[in-house]
Each structure stands twice: as C-alpha cells, then as structure tokens.
Here is the input.
Amino acid sequence: MDLIRSYFPELSTEQILQLQKLGDLYTEWNSRINVISRKDIDELYLRHVLHSMSIARFVRFKPGSRVLDIGTGGGFPGIPLAILFTETNFVLSDSIGKKIKVVAAVAEEIGLKNVRTVHGRAESINASFDHVTARAVTRLAKLWTWAEPRLRDSENEERGLYTLKGAGLEDELDEFRTAFPGASITEYGLSGIFKEPFFAEKALIRVLPQM
Here is the structure.
C-alpha cells in the first residue's frame, strides 16, 4: 500500500481502506478460484492494482459518466478505477462466470456502490458508455470492434477506449491503423511515470472515435 500511496497521495481514508482490503480478499478468493496468476498474487498491488490505476494518469472520468470494463477478469482495471472515481458508474463484464462472481463479491465486500457486474460477452451488452477500459484482453483491432459501438455520442473530447498493453505493439498498432484509419490512436509509455521495472515496457493505448 505504501507503493500506491506514493503515487496517489490524494487518496481519502475510505479509498485507502478499500484498497487495503483487496490484498486479503483476492488472496482468499484465489485460493478457491484462480482469478489471478499464482505468481502474481504476491505482487497484487504492483502488477494489478497500480497497473490498473495508471489509467487515471491519462484520463479523469467525470462524475456521472459511464465506463464499461471489457474482459475484467478478476476486476482489473475496473475495481481500482471505481475506487478512485467514486462518482463514476462502472460496468464490469466478463464471459467467465466464476470470475464475475469474484468481482461482484469483492465490490460488495469493500462497499463499492458504483459498480455493476455483467456475465456475458461485450458484444451482447446493449448499452452506451462514455468510456471503455480493458487490460490485455485481445488484439486492439478486435477490441475496438467491441468498444466503438458502445461509445455514446458525446462532446467529451476524452470519450474513447483506454487499454493497457505490454511490449511488442508495433504490428498490432499497424494492423489497427490499417483497419480503422479514421480513429485517433495514441500510445503512452508508463515507464516515464512509474519507476518500477515492471512498467518498463508497459503502455496505455488510447483510441478516440472519429468525431
């Protein structure tokens, strides 16, 4: 938690308590349902929580806005972002029922009132959102085919897809630009913000629809 607080010193007491509870909750759930890699559970706050919260360094979700987290898995990046943006409404979706069960239980246990879970594929969600988030779900071009139809018309200049990716993105980005030449795509390296080696080759990709 000291790591999280060093990068987000503005956290309230309630937010700190919610984040602190995540360690024990995910350790307990992971002993029953494998939602996080066994090798990663000891690095939960670095590899999952802080990584998820990195999105907040590039976009500030406005109060009352709606965010869809596609392929949330164990609740990342959706749960940490929902803790940060208390007045933003989050829908966390995944096609694997046991993972959504864990996400719903964690959200309830820490008292998140701004989270709703959906068991199902992104394509089946018939609703509109201001933003879509994802973390290592699928290739960017395919992810955009799921995200773009669910982005509602808005004058918000930051309306779009925010997805966390690893190294070796060149071919994936070229593929995307060829398939969607009208979309605006920006790559932000995380190593300039976070000094830990884990972030050396991590990036946030922002895709904005053609206005």
Notes: The chain has one domain: 2-155. The chain has seven helices and seven strands. The domain at 2-155 is CATH 3.40.50.150 (Rossmann fold). The helical segments are 2-7, 13-30, 44-53, 78-84, 97-109, 140-147, 170-179.
